[in-house]
From TrEMBL:
UniProt entry keywords in alphabetical sequence: ATP-binding, Kinase, Nucleotide-binding, Serine/threonine-protein kinase, Transferase
GO MF term set: ATP binding; calcium-dependent protein serine/threonine kinase activity; calcium/calmodulin-dependent protein kinase activity; calmodulin binding
GO terms classed as biological process: intracellular signal transduction
Protein name as annotated: Phosphoenolpyruvate carboxylase kinase 2
Positions contributing to ATP binding: K38
An example Gene Ontology CC term for this record: cytoplasm
Native source species: Capsicum annuum
InterPro entries according to UniProt: CDPK_Ser/Thr_kinases, Kinase-like_dom_sf, Prot_kinase_dom, Protein_kinase_ATP_BS, Ser/Thr_kinase_AS
Domain Protein kinase: 9-266
Similarity comment: Belongs to the protein kinase superfamily. CAMK Ser/Thr protein kinase family. CaMK subfamily.
Length: 278
């Protein structure tokens, strides 16, 4: 890590490790407040212009999006010849992947608790001209107050209104069919990925399944959305309607983030939950 970071923060235990960087818990020496620091070894990307550009884009895009209550906030950046260190909001209450692994399915009310803040985060990104491009449960974190935070903008791309994006990025199960088909695409790839997450949260299984990455991609390209009775018997028609509008292969008919947030399943479930808490 950079010496300048260590002058301002006390770095503690490791929280996670990725392809190029490691995340640690740290404390501000001035205030004692806890943070996370993502430390990247620049030597690992010295020979790859694309990876290097992604890492610098991530810091720039996170600054653009911050602060937002549903997006991991970036506070400081430190850099020397070897390291790029990003001081981030600490989210140490696990991620959505861990929560999905520990239980079979969520109730619709619980699913709304996930989908509303997730879609608010995506809507904020799209409003500011950012496509995340890697929406998946591993990148949906929770803090100690159980607030959802969208993270990991290493694959994100800026766009202008009406401008299409290129590049095959994303994760099997969650990547949109137009990406796999090699076409240029819009920010609505994030809506597809969020729709996959909603389906998994409600059903406990992905909508497009395969035993290998190739089989998964073939299923995604077919985009044959089904609601097996044995799984979806207790799921409401409104939830299925929203899934059809998010997991729509025809991008022109696929909902925008704002349309998802206005859908009756999102709003009526939210109102019911609010009334129940009063």
């Amino acid at each position: 890590m950079s010496d300048s970071l260590k002058r301002n923060y006390c770095v503690c235990e490791e929280l996670g490790r990725g392809k190029f960087g490691t995340v640690f818990k740290c404390y501000s020496l001035a205030t004692g407040e806890p943070f996370a620091v993502k430390s990247i070894d620049k030597r690992l990307i010295a020979d790859d212009d694309i990876d290097r550009q992604c890492l610098y884009n991530e810091a720039k895009i996170m600054h653009l999006l911050s602060p937002n209550p549903n997006i991991v906030r970036i506070f400081d950046i430190y850099e020397d010849d070897v390291h790029l260190d990003m001081v981030l909001e600490l989210c140490n209450a696990g991620d959505l992947f861990q929560r999905l692994s520990s239980r079979s399915v969520f109730s619709e009310s619980e699913a709304v608790d996930v989908m509303v803040p997730l879609m608010k985060a995506i809507a904020h990104c799209h409003l500011l001209g950012v496509a995340h491009r890697d929406i998946k449960p591993d990148n949906i974190l929770f803090n100690d107050s159980n607030e959802l935070k969208l993270a990991d903008f290493g694959s994100a791309e800026c766009f202008r209104e009406g401008q299409l994006i290129s590049g095959v990025v994303g994760t099997p199960y969650y990547v949109a069919p137009e990406v796999l088909a090699g076409r240029n695409y819009s920010e609505k790839v994030d809506i597809w990925s969020a729709g996959v997450i909603m389906y998994i949260v409600l059903a406990g299984v992905p909508p497009f399944y395969g035993e290998s990455a190739t089989e998964i991609f073939e299923a995604v390209l077919r985009a044959n959305l089904r609601f097996p009775t044995r799984i979806f018997n207790s799921v409401t028609p409104a939830a299925k309607d929203l899934l059809r509008r998010m997991l729509c292969k025809d991008v022109s008919r696929r909902f925008s983030a704002e349309q998802v947030l206005r859908h009756p399943w999102m709003t009526s479930n939210g109102e019911t939950r609010t009334v129940a808490l009063l």
